[in-house]
Predict the structure.
Amino acid sequence: MDRTVFRVNVEPAIEWSETGADRVQFLVSANVGEEPKPMERIASGGELSRIALALKTCLIGPAGKTAAPPEPWSSMKSIPRRRTRAKE
């Protein structure tokens, strides 16, 4: 995702609400030359995971350490299936 464009659009909200006084929208373009569009409309689950990891890495900075795996599913363990019938 080297050429991905990520923009944050912040506008004042019409009224205060439980989410704050601003309207924040994340705009993303994963393709060269394409205008950034609202992230919730164009990003797949995998892209959302990579964007979240990139943001986390940027916010932590060079002094911090991240323990996040490169792929979100690589650290998931399988959950044993529960028996549905009692042993006879």
